[in-house]
């Protein structure tokens, strides 16, 4: 079995896709109801509530995530924090060195999903 992607259900595909394009630098590809951002490590898919209602038995709710954290590995968390300083981001945790050595920061996307940007300790 191959893990293929993570999909976020949203009320505004274009806005959320634009947010993640800014964060990742990856251009979203798709339609008004479904896009994918194919990053180096995984695919982030974003779809409309309408498409879930139509194609997935209405089994997911937009903006209801309270348990999943999307994680992106970078080379330098502090440089990413500086780069994202001008964006309208709701910060949860400024860059911090975790007890296990990762440098990380947490913020919320426009739908309230938690995003962790981290760098593993250099060896």
Q: What this model shows, in words?
A:
The protein is α/β, with parallel strands linked by helices and 123 residues long. Helices cover 21% and strands 36% of the residues. It has 3 helices and 8 strands; from the N terminus they run E-H-E-E-E-H-E-H-E-E-E. The strands form 2 sheets. It has a 4-stranded mixed beta sheet. A 4-stranded mixed beta sheet has the order 5-8-7-6, covered by helices on one side. A hairpin with a 4-residue loop joins strand 3 and strand 4 (43-48). The N and C termini lie far apart (32 Å). The model has no long low-confidence stretch (mean pLDDT 94).
Q: How would you briefly describe this protein structure?
A:
The chain is 21% helix and 36% strand.
Q: What is the first-to-last residue Cα distance?
A: 32 Å
Q: Given the structure, what is the number of helices?
A: 3
Assembly type of the chains comes to single chain
Shape: globular
Low-confidence stretches: none
How much strand content do the residues show?
35-45%
Number of β-strand runs: 8
Widest beta sheet: strand line-up? 1-4-3-2
Mean pLDDT, to the nearest integer, reads: 94
| Run of helices and strands | EHEEEHEHEEE
Helix content: 10-25%
Q: Main β-sheet, in a few words?
A: 4 strands, mixed
The whole-angstrom Rg is 15 Å
Structural class: alpha/beta
């Amino acid at each position: 079995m191959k893990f293929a992607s993570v999909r976020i259900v949203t009320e505004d595909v274009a806005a959320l896709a634009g947010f993640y394009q800014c964060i990742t630098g990856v251009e979203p590809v798709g339609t008004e109801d479904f896009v994918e951002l194919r990053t180096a490590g995984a695919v982030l898919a974003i779809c409309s509530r309408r498409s879930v209602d139509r194609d997935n038995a209405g089994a997911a709710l937009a903006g209801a995530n309270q348990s999943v954290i999307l994680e992106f590995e970078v080379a330098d968390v502090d440089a990413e924090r500086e780069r994202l300083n001008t964006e309208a981001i709701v910060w949860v945790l400024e860059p911090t060195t975790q007890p296990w050595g990762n440098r990380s920061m947490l913020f919320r996307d426009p739908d309230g999903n938690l995003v962790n940007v981290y760098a593993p300790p250099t060896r």
